[in-house]
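User: Structure please.
Assistant: Input sequence and predicted structure:
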Amino acid sequence: MSSQPNHFDLICDAILHAASHDLPSSIEPQHSLIEDLGYDSLTISVLALELESRLGRPVLLSRWVEAVDDPSGLTVQSLCEYLEHV
């Protein structure tokens, strides 16, 4: 996977482009997409499309969302880890 771009930077870029509202000036790995970044189900769907465009492959975020019991667990870090293993 060393030829892949840094997932954190790629994900932060996609997060910024998917949001239709203002986000913090700095996105941190521990930020929850729901609680800290104000994402909802529609914005997560837009994020999936943004990630597909950047990665050049389908990105299904439903498994990532289903893997957590608490929405606060949908963090930037957990998304990075999910994308590295799918």
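Residues 1-5 have pLDDT under 50 and may be disordered.
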